[in-house]
Specification:
three-stranded antiparallel β-sheet, 4 helices, disordered C terminus, alpha+beta
Length: 97
Amino acid sequence: MADRDPGVHLQHAFVRDGRLTALPRRRALLLMACGFLAERFEPDRLYDEHEVNAILADDAPDPATLRRLLVDHGFLGRKASVYWRERPVPSTGHDGV
């Protein structure tokens, strides 16, 4: 089990119908979940806070928690209330990219 690919495990255990169903506790999976969510944001585009919340709303009753998680782990940048995709997203085994 230790050799299981985190991206594949994320897709099987935490994603249903293209949406995150829960946040993983293990750091590797949590970072994969952040990458999965970050895929929804276009590179080189700025988003206001309402847009970010709307994009994340289907994945959590409180999208602000996901937004802060993405910022805290460096997947989204933030200045004032403007957000952008900060870094390349690691592969999650998701074919939709």
